[in-house]
Amino acid sequence: MSSNAGVTFEEVGLPVLGDPDEPLPETVRAILGVYPEDDQDILLLASDEKCETHGYRTTDGGISWEETDVRRWHVNADGSEVGRVDMTEPGCTALTVVPLRDSPQNAKVLCSDGTVVGTNDDGGEWTVLGELAGAADMTFTSLRDGLAVRRGNACEVEVMDTADAAGSWESISCVLEETDLEPESIAQRGDRVFVQVGGDLYRSDDGGHEWYKADEPVEE
Known about the structure:
single chain, mainly beta, four-stranded antiparallel beta sheet, 45% strand
């Protein structure tokens, strides 16, 4: 967990099921999502060996956890289903699902082949919205405005922008021209954007145009 824009991180304890003196049991196979409200209040979604999803919440920064209802959009362990309350099949292998904060029944899914599909009825019906070849992850700040990170041609870690709900994409910046690492994820809040490349984190303070290693101090 970082509370200073990625400059430094502190380890957060994972939920321990059963005997607290034993390590995390094998029933928890994968972490599907981490949703922090702040540095103390964190929701974690985890998958068990049956690919069933469980939710856990901590309000003390990971010291203790309680199981909670799963009511966040998430992708299951093998990418075959996504959901918020009931799981549905988006018609592709999902890499990520992006909900609209002010309209939770709306969500967009980035598929492994670069197709973007969307729903406005909690997954009752999915519609193809567009595509972006090589995309690894995407994020949206409104129904129409979003960013994505992909492995491009001239730029190996490229940030793309859409203003029409993924119908078309435009390159706005190059995080890394050459790298052996793969782009993993992108996140945005206001003008601050983060891109993860392998185990490295990069930060932009101007909406995704200029990039710095995230461990460089933030200029206020």
